[in-house]
Amino acid sequence: MATLSSPRRDDRDMIPKGLLWAMLALVLASLALVSFSVLTDREHAGTPPTSTVLEETWLILEGQSAQAVTVRDKDGKLIADLPHGGFITVIQNAMTRARTVAGVTGNPPMKVVRYANGRLTAYDPASGWSAELYAFGNDNKAAFERLLASQK
Question: What's the whole-model pTM score?
Answer without folding.
Answer: 0.69
